[in-house]
Specification:
The protein is α/β, with parallel strands linked by helices. The chain is built from 23 helices and 18 strands. The structure holds adenosine-5'-diphosphate and magnesium ion.
């Protein structure tokens, strides 16, 4: 007899339905899986065999053929264990349930327990769009599955429990996500608060502007001036995520298997902050692998990608950032086809001005040769720097400021202004795909960045004097838009443009 069960594969960030067919024939005992399985899928044989025995059923000692359809889609990972087990039990007539309206997901352990599986959210979403009404998922992942509405979610702890349910002996309670569980979230703990940073008022202003419009920022200054500290305080001034942003980020973390680490509830609700080390590989940063997985730039989607000691990152690693910085997504091509991951992040980068760190420092002499300095700064290419809207110098803080007892502004106050500026953007971009000012394309800039006449003159003069590229010109306009939003202004004035221009890098001589 033929047994069937439906399950799902993940390609990039999306799911694709897979049908498991099992035939049990006469002949010498054998167990074969066909349909482009990878080695983890092939190992399902051993797990399924033992798990079936350990849940009180009989593993048929016959010729078992498992087909995973469609046959041209490569199957990876251990999530096929549960559907294969169910299909074998149906084919061997130990189960007589109609499973045509069900989806099964989950890895089995040898004792029959069902284990956590990556990518539950996109897979259940596919089930819903295919009109499947019932999904069986690992109990630990039930909350994630329940984010998809109109689908009945059955949390399965053990294969024996599923068998009892399908036989109608002992039914599993469907999992329902209560609104409280969805909203439950501990108050976020931030690594640092802006109030911890003494002095550096202009840097704090720059990072506030950057956070308000999701602009990229590069801080440059001597060691110990507070660059890393300020970057680590950035999450504390970012606005909360809108529900649709939250869902996008949750999907990325689900596929990466990082969901539990990133949130207490089913949804990721804090904007991501990713700080990969400069030894990170190309694939680790932009994504890749045989089965393409999201890299750091996608894990930072809708949040912050912090690259500390920017010139230390390999040059070819930095150059691959150029395309996603512009397009806000990354496409990875493999022999099996290409996948696209979203990568709309705000880049926060920090660097020393030279190898010893004290170039242009008024107090300490730089010991680097001019050639060494030039070589160091050349590691960052013009096209990369051109994509960074805000360049700001972080000088050393003097003793008076460091030791001073004066009040400094707390992150919560800064955050309130950022939220207000983002609210103006949300209103402006209602009904479009755009979220923040940084997302605007040339057509949007023409539409939304209206300059007062004086501002126009100033920008014209500055473009000529600073030899702004077309990209830099557009980026300056977007930045000026954000500065005007922070000030609550509808039209962009000369003062807003002046501040935006001042953030452009100075021409190297
Ligand atoms: N502006 C500042 N206000 C308060 N503490 C500071 C400041 N700058 C540096 N520090 C102290 O020095 C330490 C090192 O700063 P860090 O941000 O790592 O420097 P950088 O990254 O610029 O080399 C911080 O952990 C903090 O204790
Ligand atoms: Mg540092």
């Amino acid at each position: 007899m033929l047994g069937k069960a439906q399950t799902c594969a993940i390609i990039g960030l999306d799911g694709a339905l897979v049908e498991v067919e099992v035939d049990i024939g006469h002949g010498l005992p054998a167990f074969t899986i066909v349909g482009l399985p990878d080695s983890a899928v092939n190992e399902a044989k051993e797990r399924v065999r033992v798990a079936i025995k350990n849940c009180g059923c009989v593993f048929p000692m016959k010729r078992i053929t498992v087909n995973l359809a469609p046959a041209d889609l490569r199957k990876e990972g251990p999530a096929y264990d549960l559907p294969i087990a169910v299909a074998i039990l149906i084919a061997s007539e130990q189960l007589a349930a109609d499973t045509s309206d069900c989806l099964f997901l989950g890895e089995l352990s040898l004792d029959g327990a069902v284990r956590h599986t990556h990518g539950i959210l996109p897979m259940v979403a596919v089930a819903k769009s295919a009109g499947i009404s019932t999904v069986f998922v690992p109990a630990t992942d039930a909350m994630e599955a329940a984010l998809v509405d109109e689908v009945r979610v059955f949390p399965v702890e053990h294969l024996a429990q599923l068998v009892a349910h399908l036989r109608g002996d002992r039914l599993i309670e469907p999992f329902v996500l209560t609104p409280e569980a969805l909203l439950a979230q501990e108050a976020p703990v931030y690594a640092a608060d802006m109030a911890d940073v003494r002095g550096q008022e202009h840097v704090k202003r720059a990072i506030e502007v950057a956070a308000s419009g999701a602009h990229n920022i590069l801080m440059s200054g001597p060691p110990g001036s507070g660059k890393t500290l300020i970057a680590r305080a950035t999450p504390s001034i970012l606005p909360p995520m809108a529900p649709n942003e939250s869902l996008e980020v949750t999907q990325i973390y689900s596929v990466s298997g990082l969901l539990n680490a990133a949130s207490d509830g089913p949804l990721v609700r804090q904007r991501p902050f990713r700080a990969p080390h400069h030894t990170t590989s190309h694939a680790g940063l932009v994504g890749g692998g045989r089965w393409p997985r999201p890299g750091e730039i996608s894990l930072a989607h809708r949040g912050v990608l912090f690259l500390d000691e920017l010139p230390e990152f390999g040059q070819n690693v930095l150059e691959v950032l150029r395309q996603p910085l512009e397009d806000k997504f990354v496409t990875i091509s493999r022999a099996q086809g290409s996948v696209t991951f979203p990568a709309n992040f705000m880049l926060v980068a920090a660097m020393n001005p030279c190898p010893c760190g004290y170039y242009s420092d008024p107090a300490r002499e730089c010991v680097c040769s001019p050639a060494a300095i030039a070589r160091y700064q050349k590691r960052l290419s013009g096209p990369l720097l051109d994509r960074i809207d805000i360049h700001v110098e972080v000088p050393r803080v003097d003793y008076e400021k460091l030791a001073g007892r004066g009040e400094t502004e707390k992150s919560s106050d800064v955050r309130a202004r950022v939220i207000a500026a983002r609210a103006r953007q949300a209103e402006r971009f209602a009904g479009t795909q755009l979220v923040s000012n940084a997302d605007m394309g040339p057509a949007d800039i023409r539409k939304y960045c209206e300059l007062e006449p004086q501002a126009q003159n100033l920008l014209k003069a500055a473009s000529q004097q600073l030899q702004l590229s077309a990209r830099a010109y557009h980026r300056t306009l977007k930045l000026a838009r954000t500065i005007a939003d922070l000030a609550g202004a509808d039209a962009i004035s000369a003062a807003h443009v002046a501040e935006a221009i001042q953030y452009r890098p100075r021409l190297q001589t």
